[in-house]
Design goal:
Largest sheet: none
Organism: Candidatus Hakubella thermalkaliphila
Keywords: Nucleotidyltransferase, Transferase
Number of domains: 1
Protein name: Sulfate adenylyltransferase
Helix content: 25-40%
Distance between the termini: 39 Å
GO molecular function, one term: nucleotidyltransferase activity
Number of strands: 0
Strand content: under 5%
Oligomer: single chain
Shape: extended
Order of helices and strands: HH
Number of helices: 2
């Protein structure tokens, strides 16, 4: 029997978006200003999205 370890903070955070919500947000962001991210920032965003930084839901002190 394979047992998983309880994640820090009690819950894994999943910030990935799919389906109808993704299509809606894709349309909504077309008019927004673009920003450039370096490879480290891109990695941080990906890690937040997939829950690797759980229980963090975003950047500390920032609203995204």
């Amino acid at each position: 029997m394979k047992e998983t370890i309880t994640p820090h903070g009690g819950n894994l955070i999943n910030r990935e978006i799919a389906g109808d919500e993704k299509a809606h947000l894709d349309q909504m962001v077309k008019g927004l200003q673009k920003i450039r991210l370096d490879s480290r920032q891109i990695s941080d965003v990906e890690m937040i999205a997939v829950g690797a930084f759980s229980p963090l839901e975003g950047f500390i002190g920032k609203f995204i």
